[in-house]
Every structure is written in C-alpha cells, then in structure tokens.
Task: structure prediction
Amino acid sequence: MTGKVPLFSPGSTVSSTLSGYVALCLALQVHRLESAQFTVTGPDHPIAASLGGEAVLPCHLSPRMDAQSMEVRWFRSQYSAVVHLYHDGQDQYGEQMPEYQGRTELLKDHITDGSVSLRIHDIQPSDDGQYKCFFQSHVSYEEALLELQVAGLGSAPAISVEGHQDRGIRVVCRSSGWYPQPEAQWRDLQGQLLPSASENISQEADGLFQAEIAIILTEESNQKVSCRVRSPRLDQERESAISIPELFFPRVNPWRVALEVILPLLAVLIVLAGYCFWRQHRAKDKLQAELRWRIAQVYAVDVTLDPNTAHPNLVLSEDQKTVTYHDRRQDRPENPERFTTYPIVLGANRFTIGRFYWEVEMGDKTNWTVGVCRESVIRMGKVRLTPGNGYWTVWLRHEKYEACTSSPRTPLPVSVRPRRVGIFLDYGAGEVSFYNVTDRSHLFTFPDSFSGTLRPYFYVGYKEEGKNTAPLTICPVPAQARGNLCP
Result:
C-alpha cells in the first residue's frame, strides 16, 4: 500500500511563520533606527568672555551619536544669520555673516560622539547675546539655545578740574572702554556715596561705553573725593582720587556784597564797582590758570634727550638733559631717525596714553621751539610746524611768542618773559598745554585727537649775534609741586 505525501506538514508551517516574524521584527527595528529622535543640549548657564579674548560654546547630541553626516548650524536670532555652518562633512563659509569671517572655528574632535563646540576669536561687543546650535539629519532636526556674555574692563578714571561753578570747583571724571554699561559714582574718604552734579554714560561707535560724571566741591564739603567706575557683570571697578587745597576755593568779595546794598543810593559807585569786578575776574582767571598748572605738575615725568635723533651740530650733555648748538659737526653715526636739516632733537620718551608734564629752561634765548610731535615726522627737508603735519609747538621768533597753529599762527598772551616753559600732554583728552612757569600763567592749549606715538620736541636755533646759541635744558619739577592733588 502506497502512502500519500501531504501538501504541508505542521512542522513546516511553524518554521515558515517564525521566519516571517523575525524578518518583520528586523524591518521594524531598522525603521526605528532610521527614524531615531535626538535632542540638542547646551550649557544651562551663560558663557562668559572678555573683550579681545576667545569663547567656546559647547553643544552635543543626546543620546550620543555620530554627527559627521549631519548639518550643524550656529546662528543668531534668525536661521539665515549664520555664525558658522558645517555641511556635507566640511565647513561652509558662503553663508557666514561678514562680522564673523575669520573669527570662528568648529571643534570637531568629538563629532563622532555628537559633540561639537564653536570657538569665537577676538571677542567684540557685538558678539554679546544669544546663539542657537542646530543639528539636522536626513530625518530629524533639533536645536539648543545658548547665551554669551561679553565683558570688558575700561580705563582708569581720569579726573580733571574744569573751573569754578556755584561757589565751588567743578571736577569731572572720565573713563572709557567699558562693556557692558558701567556704573559711575563719587565717594568721600569714608566710602560714602556723594551726589553727582551731572552724569553721562554713552556708547561709542565701537560699541564700548564711556562714563563721565561731575561733582561740585565747595570749601564746606569734602575736598578729597574718589571716582569709582564699576562693571556689574564682572563685579570689578577702577578708582581714582583727587584732593583740592582750600586756597583754590573762591571767596566772597565784601565789596560786591556792599555794592548790592549801596548801588540804588550811590550811583557814583558804579565806576568803582565796575573796576572791582574787572580786577576780580582777572584774578579768577589767573587763579584758574595756576590751578590747572599745579595739577599738570602732578604728572611730571623724567624727560631725557634722544642722541639718535639729534642734528649733527647739536651737543648733548652727559645726563641727556641739555642741548647746545655748535658750528663744528659732531661725529655721529648715520641714523634714519636723525634730523639733518634743522637743529632739532627729540625726547627719548614715547607717549601713547596717559598724562605727562615737563619743563624746559630757555633763559634769555631769542630763538627756540618746544612742544610735542608725532614719532613719524620726517627728519629732513623743510616742513611747516602745524598740528596737521604732526607738530603741537610754541616758539619765539623775531621777538614774537606764537603758537604754531594752522595759518595764521596764534600770538601768545605774554606779559612776563618766560624763562621756563611747562608742557602738559593729556593724550586721552587730546590736549597739549603750555605754561609760563616764570609767572605761573597759561600760554596756550592745542585741542586735538591723537593717534600713534608722540615725543617731546626741541628746536635749539642757530647762531645768535655771532655766538653759539644758548642751551635748552630740561629741568626737574620741584618735588613739592607734585603734592597730593591726584593719586
């Protein structure tokens, strides 16, 4: 008897069903992996950065996965405001904002783990604010929000006295280069807050902030105060102090008080009152000029002459303080810094920021020029001494004292022949002031804005009446003149 073979058996049915189930599970698992979701994580606190330095903004995927084939985009408020873009396995710079070009770097050492950080070089005020870290695969995308806080500490406060106001002395404090906006205040010796007469904190074109506050000091109030400018973000501050002696405070003129009472009854006193007013006004101007000169002396520096710049006919003393013109040319090596046309020598000091004061003795000389000039001025040939050409000087020529301004030159108000002249350079304020040390009067002030390096300038002059010229000498400022007006 021949048996029949069944079309299928129970064993084959179970095997076929199991194989189909395994294939279905594998297909579902592959689909799940392909459509896997991720999140983008950044720091939960702001990233701090200093002006001019660099900042690293961290960002990574969770769970960790390879991001080499993804698009990684760093941008600001808008998707199109690209700070840095990574796509197709390499950095792309075509869409990058101009202000970030050459300043960004994507750190890809751990990109296979889904970690990429953005490094920004040469931090600027405009870099402050929020950034978005964006990841996109071919099936999903996510982003994280980060914040960069930029901070910069400004300059030490510069304090200046700007004359009398409201029966007191107006003192102004200025400081620049801060970011973000600083706080400025006056305090007394005990650290107590003092009210300001005015306050102005402004943002400059470069994004940095400048603070300017003023205070009126009276004889009855605090005569020694400090100016503090503070960065709340950095919790750091800079401070300067000033002390005003009592003798500089204005006094009440009893003649003026009497005049206000008697004038309606005694018209004859009008002429006398006018004369008294003129005398007082003149005395006040002289007092203000002497006050500015006294404060300038606080910034006295040791100026010496630079033999590398001296004209071959100039002879310098051993201490490099005195220069004299002689007929016989000195044996000096050739030097591109040396003046070869006129008997000129520069000071060895170089000034790029701050305040500086020095005094020059000229005695009875009838031909001299002193002041400051740019280090880059030409050393040979004829040149006109004007601020536009890099010279801020005063001179004596043909018995005329003049400031070398752009044409025409400005006559100086000389009532007593200056045997010694004081020069005060306030680089930050853009001023060069000259004082007649002989009678403590103000001669002239150049208002300007400086850039680059400035140096002391000395022109000795040629022969006078058949004799070698008298010397120019840099004189030490008396120690007592330095006082304690400023720190």
Remarks:
- The longest helix spans residues 269-297.
- The CA atoms of residues 188 and 341 lie 55 Å apart.
